[in-house]
């Protein structure tokens, strides 16, 4: 039963984290197009608060995910502990690492906007905004279909 509760809260925190991963780059699109100082400051404030909040959401998503991983594949703490981790899980974890990198890249981009040194166009940020969508698609297919 604990496994199911941990899994439920893992999914809730992942969804919440992804809301930030989807929206923060959209704020970057607007920042790249904005020319008014007041509007830029408002967008920067929104971006700072969102980045801080989504960072807080990512932490329990990761901790709960690691707990699930341990329960499924390490030790006998419920589930099928001790089983060899399948290929789909290795691929999923690779995407999780890439998503953490994307999250930190968002932080680096935000710091550039705060310093006023962004060199990217709004079109570039529109494409950048699609990266977590593709990664989410890959993770969901891997977890649900388990293709290998």
Describe the secondary-structure layout:
Blueprint lengths: L1 H32 L3 H37 L13 H29 L6 H7 L2 H15 L3
Written description of the protein model:
With 148 residues, this protein is mostly helical. It is 81% helix and 0% strand. The protein is built from five helices and no strands. It has helices spanning 2-33, 37-73, 87-115, 122-128, 131-145. Helix 1 (2-33) runs antiparallel to helix 2, helix 2 packs antiparallel against helix 3 (87-115) and helix 3 (87-115) runs antiparallel to helix 5 (131-145). 20% of the residues are buried.
Structural class: mainly alpha
β-strand amount: under 5%
Helix-residue proportion = over 70%
Total number of β-strand segments?
0
Distance between the termini: 27 Å
Poorly predicted runs are none
Task: Briefly summarize what is shown.
The protein has 148 residues and is mainly alpha-helical.
Keywords:
148 residues, mainly alpha, 81% helix
